[in-house]
Design a protein that fits this description.
By secondary structure, the protein is α/β, with parallel strands linked by helices. About 20% of the residues lie in helices and about 25% in strands. The strands form four sheets. An eight-stranded mixed sheet has the order 6-8-11-14-17-20-22-23. Strands 7-9-12-15-18-21 form a six-stranded parallel sheet, with no helix packed on it.
Amino acid sequence: MPNTARNSPSRRDRILILGAGGHGRVVLDILLQAARYQVVGYLDNNRDMIGRRVDGLPVYGTIEDLERFAHELDIQGVIIAIGDNGTRRGLARQVDAAGIPLVNAVHPAATLASTVTLGRNDVICAGVVVCDRCQIGDSVILNTGCVVDYQTMIGEGVHICPGVRIGGRVKVESGAFVGIGATVVPKVTIGCESITGAGAVVTADVPSMATVVGVPARPVKLASASEDLAAMLLPARP
């Protein structure tokens, strides 16, 4: 007879969610539906939230107090529910330094091929499809209904927004943000810390730190301060 004690509610690992905002509530719903962990509550750096309850769970204190609350509450894991890529990556490193395991939140309505490799602190939302031999790095958000095709590599701290379609053998580098409904053709690279606008169609490599928009996607040209000043000084056209 199989041993089911480890999966009983009283024996599941106790975890905290770092971040009690809208994304935190999404992550809580995923964790509750997956029923793998016992979610104890939240930590959040908004002090106005401390002492409140979010979807029935308490906000105990600030994220800076993680080590104290991890000890007091007998916590075995943490997941970071913060949308900003840089903040999420930075906090993950702090959690690592504190020696607290980072866990994943994978919605039961997500479809992941058996050959997919996940990192830690990943959030995989409802309706996500990840195909054969994809590699997903640490602290990645694969948001609702996105599709990641075969042999694609997603770097640390990436956010793939709802409805994105990523072709096969794409490389999305660390910290990149791919906006709602964007399409990425196969075999291109999305550079680190880049932003791909909502609805864009990416047909060529996106440089690091660039912002691209449109169909096909093109870099946005930002006016320099001198150009802005010149425009202000020029007389208006009739």
